[in-house]
Amino acid sequence: MSPRGFPRARFWPIRALVVDDKRTPRDLLRNRLKAIGIIDVWEAADAKMALAILRDFNCGDPDVVICDLDLAELDGLRFCDQVRRDRTLSCRNVPILLLTRNADGEVQRRAQQHGASGLLTRSAKVEDLALHLKKIVGIEVPA
After folding, report:
1. Distance (Å, rounded) from C-alpha 125 to C-alpha 121?
2. Assign residue 130 a region: left if phi > 0, alpha if psi is -120 to 50, beta otherwise?
3. Cβ-based neighbour number of residue 75 at 10 Å
4. Distance between CA atoms of 43 and 139, rounded to whole angstroms?
5. CB–CB of 44/18 below 8 Å?
6. Helix 76-85 and helix 105-113: axis angle, to 10°?
7. pLDDT tens digits for 55-91?
8. How far apart are the C-alpha atoms of 43 and 22, rounded to whole Å?
9. What are phi and psi of 51, to 5 degrees?
10. Is 44 helix (H, G, I), strand (E, B) or coil?
11. Topology of 3-134 in CATH?
12. How does 5-36 read in b/e, with b if 16+ C-beta sit within 10 Å?
């Protein structure tokens, strides 16, 4: 069992693409994902790199993209726009979970308008991350 009672095997073999322009948050998120049993984690240091990974058919599709809302060059909302409008990527319908410092109603509304599948604060507990992933990826996790 993983911390707080989430069974690791239920999340395997989920593949996650983590997009953040800062190394420390990527490492922290990788550890949180590992805590719930997701060990196949790809990383991109910016949105352009993430788009290249998603367009590379040899990589296969991640089951979820977890992207920082406040990326430097191409922010999370514009990243969502590009993924959802790209002919090659939009047909694959990969869920995108945006991470932010503030998940108020306005931010949630804007994220949804831009095609994000979910929004979560960076400070959310591991259990909340697991529940969001369950919701947007369709994983069954016992309560």
Report:
1. 9
2. alpha
3. 17
4. 22
5. yes
6. 30
7. 887 667 899 999 999 999 899 999 999 999 998 888 7
8. 11
9. -60, -40
10. strand
11. Rossmann fold (3.40.50)
12. ebeeebbeebebbbbbbeeeebeebbebbebb
Q: Quick check: 33 pLDDT over 70?
A: yes
What pLDDT, on a 0 to 100 scale, did the predictor assign at position 105? 86
Tokens of 60: 């296969």
Position 142 scores a pLDDT of 41
What angle do the packed helices 23-35 and 126-133 form, to 10 degrees? Answer: 80
Q: What is the mean pLDDT of residues 104-123?
A: 92
Residue 132 corresponds to which tokens in the numbers above?
A: 């969001």
pLDDT for res 23: 97
Domain residue spans in the chain? 3-134
* Structure tokens that stand for 115 in this block: 């095609």
* pLDDT computed for residue 28 by the predictor: 95
